[in-house]
Design a protein that fits this description.
Number of helices: 2
Mean pLDDT: 90
Shape: globular
Strand order of the largest sheet: 1-3-2
Distance between the termini: 13 Å
Order of helices and strands: EHEHE
Largest sheet: 3 strands, parallel
Strand content: 15-25%
Length: 90
């Protein structure tokens, strides 16, 4: 993250995504004094994400220097129509 990396994290398990989110919310973003916050430092896309929200999240993640470093994706919900060119790590 300190090098400007943007990361995609895929999981087949929603339970795993929930656990990762829970873990993140108790940790600090590297090189900051702020804790991870959904829609501020990371996004999540799963089956409950609406089509409109999905488009907005993808568009916002691809913007450079927007402060969003991580995108959590369900493999079932995130397999079609996704173009996350902003990421450089999977």
């Amino acid at each position: 993250i300190s090098a400007g990396d943007k990361i995609l994290l895929f999981s087949q398990s929603l339970l795993s995504l929930n656990l990762i989110e829970e873990f993140l919310q108790n940790k600090y973003v590297p090189n900051t004094t702020k804790k991870w916050q959904k829609y501020t430092n990371y996004f999540r896309l799963d089956g409950s994400t609406t089509g409109t929200e999905r488009e907005r999240l993808i568009k916002d993640f691809n913007k450079p220097n927007n402060g969003v470093w991580l995108f959590l994706l369900s493999t079932r919900a995130g397999c079609l129509g996704i173009n996350l060119i902003g990421a450089n790590r999977v």
